[in-house]
Design brief:
Layout: H1 5-38, E1 40-53, E2 60-69, E3 75-82, E4 94-99, E5 107-109, H2 119-164
Antiparallel strand pairs: 1-2, 1-4, 2-3, 4-5
Length: about 160
């Protein structure tokens, strides 16, 4: 099975993508955890909402821009991107955010924080399990074809060996 190049390439790509998903999920969870334990919660005013269409002409991203003052009364502007319009974030309204006091650029609207901060890791693990399951199923097919071919050639060789005697 490991001698079959398509399987090795397919398995390598799936494994690499799975590890990347898990890595970024871990970083997201680390940020959520840090903000929950060390962040400062404050109000931010939503000042703008604009929509951008995807590069190929389909799909839309909704950008919500908000401003807030940190604990030193310095103004900061940030944005959150959503795939669909979010009725909880409207221009002119205030939203709760949590920001890092050492780096206010690291912030998140409180309504975006999942109830279970480990949810991104669970999702990544589900993706990894499904992707690796599909990969091993593909590998099983490749191996079975390899084994069938090998058995056929072995049977044919045995036939020739018997007829040569």
């Amino acid at each position: 099975m490991w001698q079959n190049k398509p399987f090795v390439i397919f398995f390598s790509v799936v494994a690499a993508v799975s590890v990347l998903f898990l890595f970024f999920a871990g970083r997201t969870v680390a940020l959520y955890d840090y903000l929950l334990h060390n962040g400062i919660q404050t109000h931010a005013g939503v000042v703008d909402h604009y929509v951008r269409t995807g590069s190929k002409g389909y799909g839309q991203n909704h950008y919500y821009v908000y401003r807030f003052l940190d604990s030193r009364n310095q103004a900061h502007e940030s944005r959150v991107i959503r795939n669909e319009p979010d009725s909880r974030i409207e221009v002119g309204h205030n939203i709760e955010i949590i920001y890092d006091p050492l780096d206010p650029g690291k912030n998140i609207p409180a309504i975006m924080m999942p109830a279970d901060i480990y949810q991104p890791i669970y999702s990544s693990l589900k993706f990894m399990a499904a992707a690796l399951g599909v990969t091993f199923a593909f590998g099983g097919l490749v191996f079975s074809k390899f084994a069938q071919t090998r058995l056929r050639w072995t049977s044919i060789r045995r036939l020739f060996d018997k007829t040569d005697r």
